[in-house]
Amino acid sequence: MARKPPEQVAKTPLVMVHGFGGGVGLWIRNLDALSRSRPVYAFDLLGFGRSSRPHFSSDSTEAEEQFVNSIEQWREAVGLEHMILLGHSLGGYLATSYAIQYPSRVSHLILVDPWGFPEQPQPQTDQSLGKEVIKRPGPPRWVKAVASVLSHFNPLAVIRAAGPWGPGLVNRFRLDFKRRYEDLFDDDTVTQYIYHCNAQSPSGEVGFRAMSEGLGWSKRPMLHRVHLLPPQMPLTILYGAQSWVSSSSGEDVAQIRNQSHTKVELINDAAHHVYADQPHLFNEAVENICNTVD
Fold first, then answer.
1. What residues of the chain score a pLDDT lower than 70?
2. Whole-structure pTM value
3. What is the pLDDT, as a whole number, of residue 176?
């Protein structure tokens, strides 16, 4: 999907990469606003949405490479020389991996509540209480539900196994999405969209499962590799102030890249899906970032 301003302006295009289980339709609150001043592109990640669904390797490194290679193949097909690359959640992880491998193509890297940066914490024993304590944000109910079956099945297998009850299951566990778009749709359009993005044979989620430990952690934490980004590449990380994804990883990235342009911003009153929770603040922040490029 491509949106361009009415007048042809020679500005660096913005490319938006969605997160796990999503698709281009979830950017509905952002595309019009962001495309007023520059070309904006969005695509369904390989194995998700309406993209093709190839076999993914069960090896974490190979699965990641498949995702990244598909992004580069998309760029070549579209003919973009340079881009401002934005990724949300899983898309942020893959955008970072892409920027490490193809740095000459990325003018500015924008990560939105990125997944897969920190290491999975080990249980710490509180000596005074004799209890195990893990300090981490509490994920929402749907994340816990998916994580509970992830070790045995593909993450979204339960939706397909539910058959005709699948849409109702999505509606129940992702009622938050329906609320985020309720001023645009007064029916089940959004939850139906999410269902149909994930009702086909599993592919991208197989790749994700190969890359992940549980649901919240990566087998290859990006904090171990973020130093491979070129020092001259600007990086901005946006977090929802109420997100279950901790912004502490962003501060760690800024510390690792302390000689580079790295900025961490919090969007107030926003959870993990920043772009839908506070679209006006998100769009304004992204536009300001893009304007630093050209």
1. 6-9, 123-178, 215
2. 0.84
3. 67
The 10s digit of each residue's pLDDT in 171-193 is 555 556 667 777 787 777 877 78
Flag whether 191 is in a domain.
Answer: no
Number of compact structural domains in the chain: 1
What is the model's pLDDT at position 191? 74
Return phi, psi of residue 167, to 5°.
-60, -40
- What letter represents residue 1's amino acid? M
Name, in order, each residue with C-beta under 8 angstroms of 124's C-beta and a sequence gap of 6 or more: 132, 133, 134, 135
Domain annotation covers residue 177: no
Q: Identify whether 190 is part of a domain.
A: no
Specify the DSSP class assigned to residue 116. Answer: S
Rounded to whole angstroms, the Cα distance separating 67 from 95 reads 10
Q: Which domain holds residue 280?
A: 2-119+136-141+201-291
Nearest to 273 by CA among 12, 91, 14, 144: 91
Instruction: Look up residue 87 and give its two tokens.
Output: 């990724």
